[in-house]
Write a structure and sequence with these properties.
By secondary structure, the protein is α/β, with parallel strands linked by helices. The chain starts with a strand and ends with a helix.
Length: 563
């Protein structure tokens, strides 16, 4: 659920923090008080389009923070799969700082992209406004809702179909790639044969390039190495002046006293060890120098071999492993080209088999959709009747077409409705007004409550085009939905507002000569006063107050009855 909303320096809001409740949160206020800014700020925090003009005049930036509490294991797992931080108690903190020219988005203190913010928002909250109501007219959206209702039985089949269809499309690409005339086949075969011969003729060995490069570096630097070693030998072993002769003289000097004192003996032994190490070093250096004899022919052979390998790398890969792998692919390609007709026939058989399997899965998916469509339509009729569609008929038509086969099946879904007796069923978009469409969306949301992992829902403009008894029916349905979801609803109708669990008032005022919007949670008595204002009376007379109290009491009884 959405626990808190914190807004700073956004439009008419200086700084506000709102703590929402679990059930039905009602937001009311006079026209122009800033109700749209509240919902807009939630949209912005979830990655909606921002503009620098939204920053409050005189402020450096605007800040919106949302704190969610998530206890659903499936949602928590999805958030973690997105590699986004969640605290141990299930708290998720989103923030967005809007500056001129850039945005800073964070989740749990870690910077994220706008795309990540939007993806996370889709897991945490649904926002239903006029645009979302209109999306219900899309057949793609209608099929998506039905599939969600169908649940896991359909989901597993769609996953299997996705795998089968992906395999089919890969086979189709292979089949199309081998569609060529004899001249093209011969050109492809000749090219593959040439490349294969060039690689195999080089007789490459893995790791050979590294060995050759080491040898090449050693031979290229052999003169410098030889000069250095000659200098070292002169310093260490020159007659009468080298370190070896000096150490030998020192040993001679110490030998005469090594038997007199143990410490002198120790020094003599250390010097003897040094003399021995120097002798070993001389032998190693002599062996190394013998290997350093420069061979022009060998140097040319190594250079030539390296040049060959590097040319092959330029053409076929960055390493010998890549080149050999390329050769394997060319051999397979050559085998296919040498037996092209047989290969195409084999691919075609696999394609036909995959298509037949996909078609079989499409038929199963379509059958499940048709069964669920009848069930969902029956539930929607009941929900729409509760919302004061007195003689409504509703049908979800499933239209299979093999030409549409794909990862999701081959069906098209269309929601058909009739709201008047004797009126034929017609597509939802052809007959539904704004008020009717918002009620259909609410009915769907209510029916789908048990199939929806998203705990929080915002309704904006849910009361568009309705009044009287219909408004009361919508209010009851919102109260019912609030039993399983956190609902945040902006309304101008007292019938809907009366069903609140928490009631917030948005009002406009002055602070330091500047206009600001404020929002505050109302007490029971303040809520009655606000309901009286919404009933349309300029004065809070006793009759108006009694009417507001009666409306609230009626709402409380409805909630108790449904609890």
């Amino acid at each position: 659920m959405l626990y808190t909303l914190h807004v700073k320096d956004l439009a008419l809001i200086s700084e506000q923090e709102i703590e929402f409740g679990e059930g039905l949160n009602i937001l009311t206020g006079e026209t122009g008080a800033g109700k749209s800014v509240i919902i807009g700020s939630v949209n912005l925090a979830l990655g909606g389009r921002a503009d620098k003009d939204m920053i409050r005049s005189g402020a450096e930036y605007a800040l919106i923070e949302l704190t969610f509490f998530v206890d659903d294991p499936v949602t928590l797992s999805r958030i973690k799969d997105m590699d986004l931080p969640v605290s141990e108690d299930g708290t998720v903190l989103l923030s967005r700082k809007i500056l001129p020219g850039r945005n800073i988005c964070k989740v749990g203190g870690e910077s994220v992209t706008l795309a990540q913010l939007r993806s996370l928002g889709e897991l945490l909250i649904n926002i239903h406004g006029q645009n979302e109501h209109q999306s219900l007219l899309s057949r793609t959206k209608q099929l998506e809702i039905l599939d969600k209702y169908c649940g896991e039985s359909l989901g597993s089949l769609k996953k299997e179909l996705g795998d089968v269809w992906s395999g089919y499309e890969m086979l189709k690409k292979r089949y199309e790639a081998t569609d060529m005339d004899e001249a093209a086949r011969k050109r492809e075969a000749d090219l593959a044969s040439y490349e294969l011969e060039e690689i195999t003729g080089a007789d490459l060995r893995e790791g050979e390039d590294e060995e050759l490069e080491n040898r090449y570096r050693k031979m290229s630097g052999s003169m410098k190495i030889t000069e250095a070693l000659d200098g070292a030998e002169q310093s260490l072993f020159a007659d009468n002046a080298g370190a070896a002769d000096l150490i030998a003289k020192a040993l001679s000097d110490l030998s005469s006293v090594s038997g007199i004192d143990d410490d002198a003996k120790g020094l003599y032994d250390q010097l003897m060890e040094l003399d021995s190490l120097l002798s070993d070093f001389r032998r190693s250096m002599s062996d190394y120098l013998s290997d350093m004899e420069f061979d022009d022919r060998e140097y040319e052979e190594v250079e030539e071999r390296l040049n060959l390998i590097n040319r092959l790398k330029d053409k076929y890969g960055r390493s010998i492993e890549d080149i050999l792998s390329y050769a394997d692919e060319k051999q397979k390609e050559l085998d296919i080209l040498s037996n092209l007709e047989e290969e195409r026939a084999a691919i075609k058989d696999e394609m036909d088999s995959a298509y037949a399997k996909a078609l079989e899965l499409c038929m199963k998916i379509s059958a499940i959709r048709k069964n669920c469509a009848k069930e969902l339509a029956d539930k929607l009729i009941k929900a729409l009747t509760d919302l004061n569609f007195l003689d409504v008929r509703f049908e979800i038509q499933i239209r299979p077409d093999e030409k549409r086969i794909g990862n999701g099946g081959y069906d098209e879904a269309e929601y058909m409705i009739s709201t008047n007796p004797g009126e034929a069923l017609r597509p939802l978009g052809d007959i539904a007004s704004g008020g009717e469409l918002s009620r259909v969306m609410l009915a769907l949301k209510t029916v789908m409550a048990d199939h929806d992992d998203i705990a929080s829902v915002i309704f904006d403009e849910i009361d568009t085009g309705i009044s009287g008894i219909t408004a009361w029916k919508v209010s009851e349905k919102l109260g019912q939905l609030a039993g399983s979801h956190q609902i945040i609803c902006i309304t101008h109708l007292p019938q809907i507002a009366a069903m609140y669990d928490d009631h917030f008032l948005i009002e406009k005022g002055l602070d330091g000569g500047r206009t600001i919007s404020r929002i505050r949670k109302l007490t029971q008595e303040e809520s009655i006063t606000e309901l009286g204002r919404m009933l349309g009376s300029g004065d809070m007379t006793e009759a108006v107050r009694d009417n507001a109290v009666e409306m609230r009491n009626k709402a409380v009884k409805v909630k108790e009855r449904k609890a």
